[in-house]
Amino acid sequence: MPQNSSDCGVVISHVMMPSHANPAGNINGGVIMQLIDDAAFVIASRHARRNVVTASIDRIDFHNPVHVGDLLLLKASLNLTHRSSMEIGVRVEGEEMRSGHIRHIASAYLTFVAVNRHGQPVPVPPYHPEGTEAMRRHREAAQRRRHRLESRSAFRADPGPFQG
User: Fold this and answer.
1) What is the secondary structure of 75-89 as a DSSP string?
2) Which CATH number goes with the domain that contains 95?
3) 43, 127, 149, 157: least CB-packed within 10 angstroms?
4) 93 to 12, 32, 48, 63, 71: CA distances (angstroms)
C-alpha cells in the first residue's frame, strides 16, 4: 500500500546520561550517530514493513555539543523511495532541560534498503509526499540521490592510490 507523509515521521527523545559521555561531559559523536541510525531504522522499517539495512549515511556535521542531562530529540522522516531504497532524513536537536533552550546538533540523510530473508534487495512501496514541506524534502532528496549515484560512478572508475 502506498504511504503518504502523515505516517512517515517520528520523533524520538533520549536523556543523555554519563555513560554516553567522554570525561569532559560531552556526549560522544558515535552515540549520536547510533541514535540517528536507530531513528532512521524506525521510519524505513515502518514504510517497508520488512527487514531493512543501512546502505549509506551522508555527511554528518556536529554544530553544537550535547552534554550529560540534555534531552536529545531525533526528528526523522521519509524523504524519497526508489525501487528498494529509501532516503530518511534525521534532524537532531538538543534541549537544555533546565533552561528549555533548544539548539540544532546535527542533520543526516541515510539510505536504507529493504531486503528479504536472504539479504537480497526487494521493492518498497512508493512514497507520495503531501504538503509543502514534504514535497520540498522529496525534491531535495531526488537531487541528493542523483549526486550520490554520480559520486559512486566516479569513485568506482578511479583506481585510487593503492590499486597499483
Assistant:
1) EEEEEEE-SSEEEEE
2) 3.10.129.10
3) 157
4) 11, 11, 26, 10, 8
Interior angle at CA 59, CA 120 and CA 100, nearest 5: 115
Contacts 24+ apart (CB under 8 A), 117-120: 117/51, 119/53
Beta strand extents in the chain (DSSP E only) = 3-4, 9-15, 52-57, 71-81, 85-95, 102-114, 127-128
Task: Give yes or no for residue 3 having a pLDDT over 60.
Answer: no
What are 110's three cell numbers?
541515510
Distances (CA, A) of 70 to 25, 92, 135, 157: 11, 12, 32, 45
Q: Please tell me the total count of domains within the chain.
A: 1
5 neighbors 46 (Cβ within 8 angstroms): no
The answer as to whether 163 is a domain residue is: no
Q: Are 45 and 125 in contact (CB under 8 A)?
A: no
For 101-121, how does the pLDDT look when each residue is reduced to its tens digit (9 = 90+)?
Answer: 999 999 999 999 999 999 999
Task: List pLDDT tens digits, range 120-148.
Answer: 999 999 999 999 999 999 999 999 888 88
Query: Which structural domain range is residue 147 located in?
Result: 7-157
Instruction: Please indicate, yes or no, if residue 104 is contained in any of the structural domains.
Output: yes
Q: What is the pLDDT of residues 72-81, one digit of tens each?
A: 999 999 999 9
Domain-embedded: residue 14: yes
